[in-house]
Amino acid sequence: MLVNLTSSSHTATSLILKSSLLSWIEMVLQAPREEEGVAWLKIMENIMMVSSVERLELVTNGEWRAAVCRCVLLILQAPCTLLIRVSIICFNLTCVDSRISPIAMLPGNIVSHCPEA
Questions:
Q1: Which tens digits make up the pLDDT trace of 78-97?
Q2: pTM strictly above 0.70
Q3: CA atoms of 101 and 105, how far apart (whole Å)
Q4: Rounded to an integer, what distance in angstroms lies between the CA atom of residue 91 and that of residue 38?
């Protein structure tokens, strides 16, 4: 269900800003369930692809990027099946080409916002 909710730009942006969606996801991912890995990747992809990046940046001063980084790291560090590993590779290739680069171009130092792996 969250995959569908985050596929709308307005809904995803509102959930992040008004409902602390990224903080909640980060808490849930502290104890991930193996079968949910692909769904979490789709949710994170939706957040990066459809959210109003400019609005998130303005309101959070870049902190949303740090939260996204932490969530993706938690997904990558979780135990998972081969199918999820393949999805992670595809996720990385898709996001690096289409959205991560524009996010990295935003003002501020993205390195200071991302935790070390």
A1: 776 545 655 665 655 555 44
A2: yes
A3: 6
A4: 10
Which two tokens mark 28? Answer: 């849930």
Token pair of 105, please? 């171009």
Enumerate the domain spans of the chain.
Answer: 2-113
- Looking up tokens 């903080």 gives 23
Half-sphere CA count of 40, side-chain side, radius 13 A: 30
Maximum distance among all Cα pairs of the chain, rounded to whole angstroms:
38
What CA–CA distance (Å, rounded) separates 91 from 42? 8
Q: 3-state DSSP call for residue 113? A: helix
Average pLDDT over residues 58-72: 89
Q: How far apart are CA 70 and CA 64, in angstroms?
A: 10
Sequence-ordered alpha helix ranges (H) in 6-113: 9-19, 21-28, 37-50, 53-60, 63-77, 82-95, 101-104, 110-113
